[in-house]
Amino acid sequence: MDYKAEFEKANEKAIMVIGDVMLDSYIWGSVDRISPEAPVPVVNVSSTEDRLGGAANVVKNIASLGMKPILCSVVGDDDAGKKFFNILAKRGISSEYCVIDSKRKTTVKTRVICGKQQMLRVDSEQTNELDNIVSQDLQNNIQKAIAEQNVSAIILQDYDKGVFNQNLIQFITEKASQKNIPVLVDPKKRNFNNFKNVSLFKPNFKEFTEGIGKTCAKDDFVSLFSYARDFMLQNNIATMMVTLSEHGIFVANQEQYIHIPTQVRHVADVSGAGDTVISTAAVCYVLGFPMEEVARISNIAGGLVCEQPGVVTVEKNQLIHLI
Predict the structure, then answer these.
(1) Following DSSP, what letter does each residue of 106-132 receive, concatenated?
(2) Which are the catalytic amino acids?
(3) Contact 167, 129 (CB under 8 A)
(4) CB 3.0 to 4.6 Å from 154: which of 16, 87, 231, 308, for a disulfide?
(5) What percent of the chain has pLDDT above 90?
(6) CB atoms within 10 A of CB 295
(7) 0.90 exceeded by the pTM?
(8) Domain ranges of the chain
(9) What CATH number does the domain located at 3-22+52-106+125-322 have?
(10) pLDDT at 47 exceeding the cut of 90
């Protein structure tokens, strides 16, 4: 397969991303002493940086892989929200279909990193469900975006920060079904069993076993397939992709499964790897790659971003070179 030529086709496609966005804030520095006030390291700050996080990191990855991202989310009317929109604008990504909620604060994850080691993370967030008016505004924006844009796939990127509820999920899947648009899901715990009638469902191993209330060894693929098949049949899911960290990726439809082992890499930071996997899977899915290739390439992409500290973006040319 000529992967370079295949990925060039991505320029003609658009993927909608719906979910919980956040601002990833970084404090970079060094440590050479312990505080006299408490047994904690003293960080000498060298630089700070703000990046797109959560569902917005998925958006960033899709853009990096050559497709047009369409973001639908809710952001607070605060300084972090303004920073978030400024970063989107600098990257040429539209915020047209985002909703601003004056009663909600923008999620911020602040990471303190020294060298390649994350020392501390501080979260500022609000995780209650959206109120009915804001949720309805989001539904209206989603419907408008589907009508106005040539959407090739929809990613539901859930971080349990309140954007998703059962009604919104059902609304999205019904609208997508009417337009024959595939829906791919990266779930979290709260709405785990509300995602039905979707094309691809991508939990990690912990999320999946906790979601179904059963467990097995990560490398017991026969049991994993049995659980996955039951779950797919119950929820009308076409394909499941379960990330297994050091054991790679497990992918299955309702008849068979494939295991893609991990590639040995130096792991600096796993932050954002799940975002990269679902982004890459969606792009490969839209390009029509067979499911084994979707899983293999997504596995490589996830490994790539783990080599660098912080939440980073997969680079298309490097990915093509490796695959």
Answers:
(1) PPEEEEEEETTEEEEEEEE---SPPPH
(2) 275
(3) no
(4) 16
(5) 80
(6) 28
(7) yes
(8) 3-22+52-106+125-322
(9) 3.40.1190.20
(10) yes
